[in-house]
Amino acid sequence: MSELLYTDRPALRRPLLVAAFSGWNDAGDAATSAVRFMQRRWRADIFATVDPEQFFDFTQARPLVRLRDGKRVIEWPSNTFAGHVLEDHERDIILLNGTEPHLRWQHYVQSILDVCEAFEVSGFITLAALLAEASHTRPVRVTGSSTDDELSRQLDLGRNTTSAYEGPTGIVGVLTQAIRESGIPSASMWANVPFYVQRSPNPKGSLALLERLNRGLKLELTLHDLEVFGARFDAQVQSDIANNPEVAELARRFEEDEPDDLDVVDEGGELPDPKAMVDELERFLREQRDDSKDA
User: Fold this and answer.
1) Domains along the chain?
2) Within 10 A of 46 (CB to CB), how many other CB atoms are there?
């Protein structure tokens, strides 16, 4: 029995597939929020889902109870495909809003490849977000890589590159490799969000990804709402930091150290070890406490 559940078969012209996955590759929910924004703005209809039964441990990703029109419904971890026709463009868009699975990753990836084959997908773009040593006062840096010269040019990713990263990976890394091996042109973009900012979702990360897509693919999305949310988010983060002098000092260091070149391509394209980020923060806080004792 196929894990793909179709409700429709829309007529799409050589679509680009834009995907994001909640979980390890989605710091601040920036990537999945970007895909949801596009889906809502375009009112893109969902035409297929992935059956979650085979891929999730429901003790880790528990289903949610919701009330709709006064009735209780169960929401399971979702992986949805939505289609949108781009007028005056040569190809359309498929949006995949996914959840990183716990089990059977190769079968999960094959389900996505089956959609690519069924709709003759002509390009695959993964959106992701990583925790970085970045300043909340600077524009969010977008890094990435691509296997295709045209996508590299459109998305301003610099030269055609492949990742030089070695180490643990998430579903984005596994899927990206499978897409490359299938011969579909692909690109991956990562929003670098400050690891010391605890608020989520992070609309500034979503905005940075969507601005790059908007500019490169000429999507003509109106992003004013996200700009407003980003300004409010900045005010909230600034208030949080003002009440924590130790984190304020850490933020000041990153603001001074962050390079002005915000378009540097990071060929790693993977999420750093979260433990390393936590260790760095704890080390800094210990130093602050020791300094205060010596004073």
Assistant:
1) 4-294 (3.40.50.10900)
2) 15
